[in-house]
Structures are given as structure tokens and as C-alpha cells.
Design a protein that fits this description.
Largest sheet: 5 strands, mixed
Strand order of the largest sheet: 2-3-4-5-8
Protein name: Thermonuclease family protein
InterPro entries: SNase_OB-fold_sf
CATH topology of the largest domain: OB fold (Dihydrolipoamide Acetyltransferase, E2P)
Organism: Qipengyuania vulgaris
Number of domains: 2
Order of helices and strands: HEEEEEEHEEEEHE
Number of strands: 11
Helix content: 25-40%
Shape: elongated
């Protein structure tokens, strides 16, 4: 006797899923589009106009002054200008300290050219030292590009190698 093959009626057969992968493709496309466009869709950082005189800290009176090639003081506030890293005033060697003074003077000169704008609005982000973080520009002239182009700073490379100003 041969065994009978039993065929179950269609209504009892397990359904084969069709197109189950399609929703995953659509989801992947939507997430990919969001990933690519997230910076474009984000509102621009608030920009504030700045119109004040900045002296060199410790040399001239005034509420606003230049501390070094990338830091300002406005009263009790400290502002770290972003996009570049200038040599340190208390650098490792005389060459770095001299380059730091040159960078400080160049920043003072850039600021003395008058009104400029910076990002951050009323509540700017802050660094680990509590300084406000702001990008400064005057029209299309970005301060970071100016300082780097003059050879007085390096581009900000977080965790990367730094310029050896002492060589």
C-alpha cells in the first residue's frame, strides 16, 4: 500500500510572506536620506553682530580684549574662537611664544577692522573650560581661514597631531 499524500486545503496552509523585505528597503532608504540631509535640514546656528573695540589684555583699558590668538575676554566672559588653533602664549619654546604673540596681534588687527558676526546666539556651546565657543566672520571672510592662511594657526584637529611651533 502506498502512502497517501495528504494535501491540506489552501485555507490551512501557512501563508508565504511576499514582499516582507520591501518595508526594510523603504526604511533603509528613509534612514539613509535622513542621515545625508540631517545637516541641511538643521536650522542654521544663530548669528550675532559684534561691534566693540578689542584691546590686548593687560595693555589697554577696556572691557573687551584679546587674550591670545584664539581667545577673547569680554568682562568676565571668555570666548574661544573656533575653526583654528593658535600657538600658546606660554608655549614650550621661545619660537612658539613669539608666534603666539604674532597670532594675538593678528587677531587684534582683524577685530580692529570693525563690525563682524559670530555664531552661538545668546546661549553658545561651551568647551571643557567654560569658554563660549564661537565662529567669527566678516562677510565671506572667516577668521579661521584668515589666521590659518597667515601661518599663525593650524586647523582644529581634535585628537590629531599638532603643529610643532618649536622647529
Amino acid at each position: 500500500m502506498s502512502k497517501r499524500t495528504r494535501i491540506s486545503p489552501a485555507r490551512f496552509r501557512p501563508r508565504r510572506r511576499r514582499g516582507g523585505w520591501r518595508w526594510m528597503v523603504v526604511l533603509a532608504l528613509v534612514l539613509g536620506a535622513w542621515w545625508v540631509l540631517r545637516d541641511v535640514l538643521q536650522p542654521p546656528a544663530p548669528v550675532s553682530a559684534v561691534d566693540m573695540r578689542f584691546g590686548i589684555c593687560g595693555e589697554r583699558g577696556g572691557e573687551a580684549c584679546v587674550i591670545d590668538g584664539d581667545t577673547l575676554a569680554i568682562g568676565q566672559r571668555r570666548v574661544r574662537l573656533t575653526g583654528y588653533d593658535a600657538p600658546e602664549m606660554d608655549g614650550a619654546c621661545e619660537a612658539e611664544r613669539a608666534k603666539a604673540m604674532e597670532a594675538r596681534d593678528a587677531l587684534s588687527g582683524w577685530l580692529a577692522r570693525g563690525r563682524f558676526s559670530w555664531t552661538g546666539g545668546a546661549e553658545p556651546p561651551r568647551d571643557q573650560y567654560g569658554r563660549e565657543l564661537r565662529e567669527a566672520r566678516r562677510g565671506d571672510d572667516v577668521l579661521a581661514d584668515h589666521m590659518i592662511g597667515a601661518g599663525l594657526a593650524e586647523g582644529s584637529v581634535w585628537g590629531g597631531s599638532r603643529v610643532d611651533w618649536c622647529r
